[in-house]
Amino acid sequence: MIKILVATDLSERSAHAVQRAVQLIRRQGGGEWCLLHVIDDDAPAEHVASQVQQAETLLHAQAERLAEQAGSRPHVVVGSGEPAAIIVESAQGMGADLLVVGAHRKSALRDFFVGTTLERVVRSSHLPVLRVNGPVTREYRHALLAMDLSRTSQQALRQARQLGLLAADDFHVVGAVEPVAPGAMMEAGLSVEVLQNQRELLRQQLVERLSEDGVSLANERLQVHVGSPEGVIGEALRQSGADLLVLGTHAREGLSRFFLGSVASRLLATVDSDALVVPPAA
């Protein structure tokens, strides 16, 4: 059974994350999960203590209701201090397999994922993060894995399968061959034919990578297109009807540089689907 940590700011956005955690826990027949709320301690001690008490009261009452829905009562943790440190400590303490968070406001979403609390959490805990973007009306029915030739893409595939978020062969994979600017193409002697050859080569290489994990997809489920990764992935989400986007992060650059550079940070700021962000293994 997977262990789930839900970071909540007690907002409606976080309520969506809580409901997704309920669905995941219920699907596996119960299990250990935790509601975590962090209070900013940049205030007088009396004020912080009062906020902690209020949050604990609210979350314990919520936990009783959630126990009936999920089949397992969540633990409640309310801490004060630096959010990333509290989240990492709590995740390590319970041996969490997954962190679930709600989406911030559209205008703030990129800031939430780049150079902020979540980046520090992923870098230091290597914990997969499920960002829940809206109300939970059903289980995930179809996922899209954005894939390149990095080990982190394979890690994302494996983690998503272990978490039960990717069925054995019922998902789509998309890769992108990014063209250079037209002028640069001429200078480099590149042509449309060369790009198409690169596309076919990447597709075959992805087939081989997938086969290493025992995955064999129908041709229509593995798409490689020439274009900007952001555009290719966004279009694949629309065409496939996927309700979950799975992304791997790169080891050296952390969450500030996702799959194929900063593409994912822009995608997460614009796409409506939920997203599973998988960092490299420790």
TrEMBL record:
Residue span, UspA domain: 3-132, 140-279
Q: Which UniProt keywords apply?
A: ATP-binding, Nucleotide-binding
- Asked whether the UniProt record includes Nucleotide-binding among its keywords, one would answer yes
Listed GO MF terms: ATP binding
Source species, domain of life: Bacteria
Q: Per its UniProt record, what Gene3D superfamilies does this chain match?
A: HUPs
Checking InterPro entries in the record gives: Rossmann-like_a/b/a_fold, Universal_stress_UspA, UspA
Q: Provide the family line.
A: Belongs to the universal stress protein A family.
Q: What is this protein called?
A: UspA domain protein
Q: What's the source species for this entry?
A: Ectopseudomonas mendocina (strain ymp) (Pseudomonas mendocina)
